[in-house]
TrEMBL record:
Coiled coil: none annotated. Belongs to the AHA1 family. InterPro entries: ASHA1/2-like_C (IPR013538), START-like_dom_sf (IPR023393). This is SRPBCC family protein. Residues 19-153 form the Activator of Hsp90 ATPase homologue 1/2-like C-terminal domain. SUPFAM superfamilies: Bet v1-like (SSF55961). Gene3D superfamilies: 3.30.530.20. It comes from the Bacteria.
């Protein structure tokens, strides 16, 4: 007997077709020097990025706003399936140490569509309040602007 797969209740998602092969998009997600070029909304910089690309490995970034405000993030990878899928969460730190305030788990799905990439980024939250807070922070606009920057990188700036 097969059980139905439940869709997470508290998720936000963004999907777009990118005119670049998924291996290139995957590289932009998994090479720190590339991620630093596009991570964050327009006007933000990411001066720091650290990745340990294995399950349980560290994923850490520091975004900086034009006014100097800094936004650190830290978590671990839960799944890496090159070049199709990356899953990370802030629920744990390295060594599977629980986070004092888990906020979300991110799933980045990269599907091949005739040499282009169907990009789907999903943020799954533990509560409706967290989902709503993320939406109020500008999830669609902020993640959309980051995606614009990612697309610019993989279609215009990154060599094949």
């Amino acid at each position: 007997m097969s059980l139905p797969v439940a869709k997470p209740q508290f998720e936000l998602s963004l999907t777009r077709l990118i005119d670049a092969p998924r291996a290139k998009v995957f590289r932009a997600w998994t090479e720190p020097e590339l991620l630093k070029q596009w991570w964050g909304p327009h006007g933000m910089t990411t001066p720091e990025c650290e990745m340990q690309l294995w399950v349980g490995g560290l994923f850490r970034t520091l975004m900086r706003a034009p006014d100097g405000a800094e936004y650190p993030t830290q978590g671990v990878y839960l799944e890496i399936v090159a070049p199709r899928r990356i899953v990370f969460t802030d629920a744990f730190g390295p060594g599977w140490v629980p986070s004092p305030k888990a906020f979300m788990t991110a799933v980045v799905q990269l599907d091949d569509e005739h040499g282009k990439t169907r990009y789907t980024a999903t943020a799954m939250h533990w509560s409706e309040a967290d989902r709503q807070a993320h939406e109020n922070m500008g999830f669609h606009d902020g993640w959309g602007q980051s995606l614009d920057r990612l697309i610019s990188l993989v279609t215009e700036k990154m060599p094949d």
